[in-house]
């Protein structure tokens, strides 16, 4: 895999998210499963970070905890210095919807809404007016112009994933968390998607945290974090120097 | 989010989401069910109410006034009561309570015969005189010649009277001058059956028949102050001018004037006391029957359970949807609100469809009912009832959303990892199973309690064979006044006097039963009457005496404990005249029909009922009911304790010798009983008599009866004999009386009118006969029975409706739940099959909980109904096994159908297709 040259690494700013001693355990006694164990991590603004690791290493759980979707068993998540899990549900939800965008492996589009409504829904929830120029640009970039009136099940996997990305970006969040964004789409669509993430990162300076198995996707990240048995590997978290990740 | 936007998203979700579509269908059904129930009930009650008005008229009050032709001569004739007359009857305040009033005049033209006698029917084909003469002949055949009245009645009614009296034309129009309307029964009396357009003649004048009047309609109310003329319903209605002319030609005859009133408010009770001719139409004022409200409550309970079931069915998909909302930034606190928005739309969308479906279904049922039982149901939609049902279901939808909203509020954004998945799934299934069980109990209970209600209602209003009770669904009953014998008195010279006190020399009371009742000829004549379906006549001799036997522990106990007033001692003079000595036991011989005697077979404890031997008097059935006595104390109000004893009859086999129980084991099959009676051959001899009369006119007659069967519980008893009967009863056939030489008339005659016929003519026949049978009391139950039969029909249709609805609902729910399980476990099924399980075995494990749940809930409901029937319906020991077996059979068939539907879904997919199912 080609080495990523860093791109925006020079312009990387202050820390956007800090994780301190984050752990998530399931079950108890002998059946205790340490999905994420004592993870400390810091992600800077404008950075693209890839979290890689074997299946069951806790990547997705870590991502969900970073996004305020899964309360940790121990530890803290600080978003711009604000501790996410010390807020009440309403405040955390508000914080989340304004600052964080999510891209899921299974797209999570609302099946009974058209693509246009799926894009509009988070704006309505947040009570924000849409930036028409931005929306048009986004839709054009994602090649969704002709698909807005379709229902999710009428689109291909790639189409649904593009719609999910548009939905995540439309609120202009500072942080975008993507869980296996290329996992359910074909290779060509995956490549397109990654290009778009890079473009978006360049153009709007958004921070991306991507959980992936796909080394092509990981290869374009500024940093790669490796997880094993819920723990961050000692050699990870460094700037991507173009090495390959062998699962 | 703005409410408008939320409403929009919610509406879209409800319309597009599969989970909500099922719920939408369920809520529609929940609205449709009570609306259908209410509309059918309301339509039937409306029909029954209209029928009731046909039976009793629509007026609330009636005033009977009499006038003469002379007083009607003026211009104001046939215009009803003048203001002055009305004010004399009612004060100004009471007058204002009248909403409208109508006038009906009628005259009995029987006197015409005396004025212009005709006896030859030739040349009278289209003449009313022919009918007149025919009726006169029939009257004479019944009651002997002379004294006939009410042979032909004519009348005039203004428009309001026609409405209030429910005088309705079967065809044609009300008469103008020169025309006449005749009643349906009068029309049938003619061979020619005149129709509108034909002519009839009366005293040489021709009248055009303008219409035929239905026989129903009522122009009088039954009360103690009415006269025979009041009851008379005109056979012909003329125009006002013709009626006036007819009266003038008839001369000075009495005219009945009935003022029919409809009141806004009730008159004060004093008004009725001031003038007895003013009578309330109590049948119309009082609502006798109503649908038990609990049936409707049960419908609502089932609807609520159905809603909860449906919400639970749809909950996983709702959770999925709400998780998406949460992922997209909707705060947890807004989730219940969003759910309620969805429910709001579900309700709003279901409402019109549910109401339309309910009303449409009700219309179909009414239409189908009308066709099947040939009774036209008047379809009516109750706006209040429908609005009420819609509101109740709205509230139920609101309430049913509480649990899911709490659950959804607590739902985490991301689905939990699979650690506790199995336990949660089991819990969910248990809850769903429990709810389904509850729904099944409700459905079975609804059906079972409807059966109990019908049973209890039947017990209350009609006697059914309980302890060998004789059915009482008759219309009229003639009953001999056997106990009011001291109203007539025969003096030494044989003069019959009506007095109610006894003289100092009186030694005995003669009942003379052989002459109290109806003769064989009268009964046979009744049986031939067209309006009568059947006549049940019973002979009875209640004044037989048997020597009290102190060797019988039962009789001894009765006498010593003073529990029986049937053990008596005669006056010394009587003892001397008839050679009597000591105590005697009163005993009664009752005659039944063969069918009724055979109905007593289950109550026979010893021997058997041999109809031939009973008919010839060779054998008789002895009935001595086992008795349970109970002593109790009460305070008489002055602080003194008094003791009292209650006495009840035991069911067959219930006697176990406990304290307070008595059973006669002294008399057995093959034993003989010697009895005698004191009677006179003089039919006029009744009441108190002196020793001389006794010697001259009263005879002793002895009989010996051989016991062929023994019944030791109360059997063959009539509903109106509620007080304890003589402890010794001899049951036989009516023929037995003649066979043993015991002449007797029928002391109880029950008349069953032809179903569905108006019965106006029958009523007149009954009342006329009642006038001739002064010794018999006439009980008129025709109106009650008409009303009751309608009510029974209505209740039967409603309970059948409930059964069908509940069966559909139950089958639907069971099928739904099983299909849900099939769907939930698709992948599991595939995986188990790969592991080597057969599909059949997996199917069996899937359906087993359901097919065991149905009989279990059936048994539990039966138990619940059994317990509640005792407390709520006073049905002691009623199980209704036969009906419950039918219910179980029905449930088995429906479960089989559900299993077949589920099997189709279960066996449809290949293993490959099953395991590729997404989690």
Q: Which percent bin holds the helix content of chain A?
A: 25-40%
Shape of chain A: globular
State the major sheet of chain A: 6 strands, mixed
H/E topology pattern of chain A: EEEHEEHEHHHEHEHEE
Please mark out the parts of chain A with pLDDT under 50 across 5 or more consecutive residues, or reply none. 1-12, 241-247
CATH superfamily of the domain at 45-69 and 97-232 in chain A: P-loop containing nucleotide triphosphate hydrolases
Q: Classify the oligomer.
A: heterodimer
Overall body shape of chain B: globular
Relative helix content of chain B: 40-55%
User: How many E-type strands of chain B?
Assistant: 28
The biggest sheet of chain B, with number of strands, parallel, antiparallel or mixed sense and barrel status, is:
10 strands, mixed
Total beta strand runs of chain A: 10
Distance between the termini of chain B: 32 Å
Look up the CATH topology of the domain at 45-69 and 97-232 in chain A: Rossmann fold
Rg calculated over all Cα atoms of chain A: 18 Å
Mean pLDDT of chain B: 80
């Amino acid at each position: 895999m080609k080495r990523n040259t860093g791109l925006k690494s020079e312009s990387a700013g202050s820390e956007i998210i800090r994780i301190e001693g984050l752990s998530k355990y399931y079950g108890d006694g002998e059946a205790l499963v340490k999905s994420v164990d004592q993870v400390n991590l810091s992600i800077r603004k404008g950075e693209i970070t890839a979290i890689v690791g074997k299946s069951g290493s806790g990547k997705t759980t870590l991502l969900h905890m970073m996004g305020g979707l899964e309360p940790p068993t121990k530890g803290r998540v600080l978003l711009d210095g604000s501790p996410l899990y010390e807020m009440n549900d309403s405040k955390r939800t508000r914080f989340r919807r304004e600052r964080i965008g999510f891209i899921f492996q299974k797209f999570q589009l609302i099946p009974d809404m058209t693509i246009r409504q799926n894009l509009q829904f988070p704006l309505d929830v947040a009570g924000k007016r849409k930036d028409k120029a931005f929306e048009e640009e986004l839709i054009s970039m994602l090649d969704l112009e002709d698909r807005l009136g379709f229902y999710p099940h009428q689109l291909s996997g790639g189409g649904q994933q593009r719609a999910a990305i548009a939905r995540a970006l439309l609120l202009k969040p500072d942080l975008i968390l993507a869980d296996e964004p290329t996992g359910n789409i074909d290779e060509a669509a995956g490549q397109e998607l990654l290009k778009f993430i890079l473009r978006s990162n360049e153009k709007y300076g958004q921070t991306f945290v991507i959980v992936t198995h796909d080394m092509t996707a990981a290869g374009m990240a500024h940093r790669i974090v490796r997880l094993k048995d819920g723990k961050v590997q000692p050699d990870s978290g460094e700037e991507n120097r173009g090495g390959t990740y062998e699962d | 989010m703005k409410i408008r936007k939320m409403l929009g998203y919610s509406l879209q979700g409800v319309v597009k989401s599969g989970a909500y579509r099922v719920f939408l269908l369920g809520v529609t059904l929940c609205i449709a069910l009570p609306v259908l129930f209410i509309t059918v009930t309301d339509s039937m009650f409306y029909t029954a109410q209209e029928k009731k008005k046909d039976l009793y008229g629509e007026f609330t009050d009636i005033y009977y006034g009499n006038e003469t032709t002379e007083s009607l001569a003026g211009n104001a004739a046939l215009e009803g009561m003048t203001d002055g007359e009305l004010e004399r009857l009612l004060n100004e305040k009471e007058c204002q309570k009248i909403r409208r009033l109508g006038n009906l005049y009628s005259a009995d033209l029987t006197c015409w015969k005396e004025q212009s006698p005709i006896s030859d029917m030739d040349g009278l084909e289209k003449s009313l005189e022919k009918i007149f003469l025919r009726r006169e002949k029939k009257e004479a055949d019944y009651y002997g010649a002379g004294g006939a009245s009410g042979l032909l009645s004519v009348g005039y009614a203004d428009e309001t009277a026609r409405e209030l009296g429910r005088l309705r034309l079967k065809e044609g129009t009300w008469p103008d001058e020169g025309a006449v309307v005749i009643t349906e029964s009068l029309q049938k009396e003619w061979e020619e059956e005149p129709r509108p357009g034909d002519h009839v003649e009366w005293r040489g004048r021709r009248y055009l028949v303008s219409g035929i009047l239905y026989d129903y309609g009522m122009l009088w109310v039954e009360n103690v102050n009415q006269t025979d003329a009041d009851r008379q319903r005109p056979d012909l209605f003329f125009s006002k001018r013709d009626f006036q002319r007819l009266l003038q030609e008839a001369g000075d005859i009495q005219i009945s004037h009935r003022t029919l009133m409809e009141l806004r408010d009730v008159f004060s009770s004093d008004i009725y006391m001031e003038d007895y001719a003013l009578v309330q139409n109590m049948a119309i004022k009082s609502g006798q029957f109503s649908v038990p409200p609990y049936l409707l409550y049960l419908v609502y309970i089932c609807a609520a359970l159905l809603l909860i079931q449906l919400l639970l069915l749809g909950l996983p998909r709702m959770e999925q949807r709400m998780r998406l909302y949460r992922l997209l930034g909707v705060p947890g606190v807004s989730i219940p609100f969003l759910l309620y928005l969805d429910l709001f739309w579900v309700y709003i969308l279901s409402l019109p469809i549910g109401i339309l479906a309910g009303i449409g279904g009700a219309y179909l049922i009414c239409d189908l009912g009308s066709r099947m039982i040939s009774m036209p149901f008047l379809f009516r939609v109750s706006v209040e009832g429908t609005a009420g049902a819609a509101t109740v279901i709205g509230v139920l939808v609101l309430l049913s959303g509480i649990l899911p909203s709490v659950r959804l509020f607590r739902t985490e954004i991301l689905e939990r990892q699979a650690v506790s998945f199995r336990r949660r799934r089991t819990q969910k299934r248990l809850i769903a199973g429990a709810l389904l069980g509850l729904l099944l109990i409700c459905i079975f209970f609804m059906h079972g309690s409807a059966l109990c209600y019908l049973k209890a209602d039947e017990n209350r209003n009609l006697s059914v064979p309980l302890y060998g009770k004789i059915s009482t669904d008759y219309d009229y009953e003639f009953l001999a006044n056997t106990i009011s014998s001291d109203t007539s008195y025969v003096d030494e010279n044989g003069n019959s006097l009506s007095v109610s006190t006894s003289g100092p020399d009186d030694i005995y009371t003669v009942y003379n039963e052989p002459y109290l009742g109806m003769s064989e000829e009268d009964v046979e004549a009744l049986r031939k009457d067209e309006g009568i379906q059947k006549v049940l006549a019973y002979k009875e001799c209640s004044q037989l005496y048997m020597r009290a036997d102190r060797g019988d522990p039962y009789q001894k106990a009765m006498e010593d404990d003073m529990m029986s007033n049937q053990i008596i001692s005669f006056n010394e003079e009587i003892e001397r005249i008839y050679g009597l000595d000591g105590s005697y036991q009163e005993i009664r011989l009752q005659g039944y029909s063969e069918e009724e005697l055979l109905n007593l077979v289950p109550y026979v404890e010893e021997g058997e009922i041999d109809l031939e031997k009973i008919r010839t008097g060779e054998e008789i059935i002895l009935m001595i009911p086992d008795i349970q006595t109970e002593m109790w104390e009460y305070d008489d109000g002055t602080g003194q304790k008094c003791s009292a004893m209650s006495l009840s009859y035991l069911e067959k086999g219930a006697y176990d010798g406990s304290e307070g129980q008595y059973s006669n084991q002294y008399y057995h099959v093959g034993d003989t009983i010697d009895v005698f009676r004191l009677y006179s051959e003089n039919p006029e001899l009744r009441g108190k008599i002196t020793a001389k009369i006794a010697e001259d006119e009263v005879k002793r007659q002895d009989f010996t009866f051989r016991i062929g069967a023994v019944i030791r519980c109360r059997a063959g008893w009539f509903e109106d004999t509620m007080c304890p009967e003589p402890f010794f009863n001899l049951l036989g056939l009516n023929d037995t009386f003649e066979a043993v030489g015991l002449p007797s008339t029928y002391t109880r005659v029950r008349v069953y009118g032809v179903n569905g016929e108006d019965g106006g003519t029958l009523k007149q026949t009954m009342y006329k006969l009642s006038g001739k049978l002064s010794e018999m009391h006439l009980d008129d139950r025709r109106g009650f029975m008409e009303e009751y039969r309608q009510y029974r029909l209505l209740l039967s249709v409603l309970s059948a409706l409930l059964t069908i609805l509940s069966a559909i609902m139950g089958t639907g729910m069971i099928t739904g739940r099983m299909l849900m399980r099939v769907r939930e476990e698709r992948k599991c099924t595939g995986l188990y099959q790969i592991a080597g399980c057969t599909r059949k075995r997996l199917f069996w494990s899937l359906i087993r909980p359901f097919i065991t749940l149905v009989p279990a809930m059936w048994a539990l409901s039966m138990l619940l109904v059994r317990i509640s029937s005792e407390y709520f319906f006073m049905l002691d020991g009623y199980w209704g096994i036969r009906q419950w077996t039918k219910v179980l059979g029905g449930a088995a068939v429906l479960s089989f159908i559900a299993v077949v539907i589920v099997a189709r879904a279960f066996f449809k997919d290949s293993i490959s297709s099953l395991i590729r199912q997404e989690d």
